[in-house]
Design a protein that fits this description.
single chain; alpha/beta; Beta-carbonic Anhydrase, Chain A; 5-stranded mixed beta sheet; globular; Carbonic_anhydrase_sf; Carbonic anhydrase; Pro_CA_2; zinc ion binding
Length: 145
C-alpha cells in the first residue's frame, strides 16, 4: 500500500496478548500511525452469532466513531488461539471471523474489512475470504443491525 493511513481499526479480543502483535501488523501492513482498538472478549463469536445485540451495537458505534471521526479506511476483525471469551477451536473461530467480516462490511461499504487470526506463537495471519453460505434468516437479521 502506497499511502499512509493516519488511523486503522481493529475489532480485537480484550486479551492483552493479542494487542501488540495486532497493532504491529496493522501499522506495518497498512502504513498506519494509529490503531483504534475496539475490544471485547471473543468479538468474532459475538459478531458471528448475533446473540448479544447490545455488544454488537456497542461495537458498531465504536467502529462508526473510528471511521467517521478518525477517517479509518481499514477494519480488522480478530480471533486468537486460547481465547477465554471464545474457547472454540481454530477452524470454528476462523469461520466466525469470516462471518464477522461480512457483517462489518455491511455497516460501511467505504472501508476495507479484513480478518486476522493470531496463532499459538502470537503471529498474526490474514484470514482469506471464503464463500460462506448464509441463511435467509441471518441475512434478514443482519439488515436489522
Amino acid at each position: 500500500m502506497n499511502t499512509t493511513n493516519r488511523f486503522v481499526t481493529s475489532i480485537n479480543c480484550m486479551d492483552g496478548r493479542t494487542q501488540i502483535p495486532v497493532i504491529n501488523y496493522m501499522k506495518t501492513e497498512y502504513v498506519a500511525e494509529y490503531v483504534d482498538m475496539i475490544t471485547e472478549a471473543g468479538p468474532n463469536k459475538i459478531l458471528a452469532e448475533h446473540t448479544n445485540k447490545s455488544a454488537i451495537e456497542s461495537i458498531k458505534l465504536r467502529v462508526s466513531i473510528s471511521t467517521e471521526k478518525h477517517d479509518s479506511k481499514v477494519i480488522a476483525v480478530v480471533g486468537h488461539f486460547d481465547c477465554g471469551g471464545n474457547p472454540s477451536d481454530e477452524e470454528t473461530q476462523i469461520q466466525q471471523i469470516r462471518e464477522a467480516v461480512k457483517i462489518v462490511e455491511g455497516w460501511n461499504s467505504n472501508v476495507e474489512v479484513i480478518g486476522l487470526w493470531v496463532d499459538a506463537q502470537w503471529r498474526v495471519n490474514k484470514v482469506s475470504p471464503q464463500f460462506t453460505p448464509v441463511s435467509i434468516d441471518k441475512l434478514i437479521e443482519m439488515k436489522k443491525l
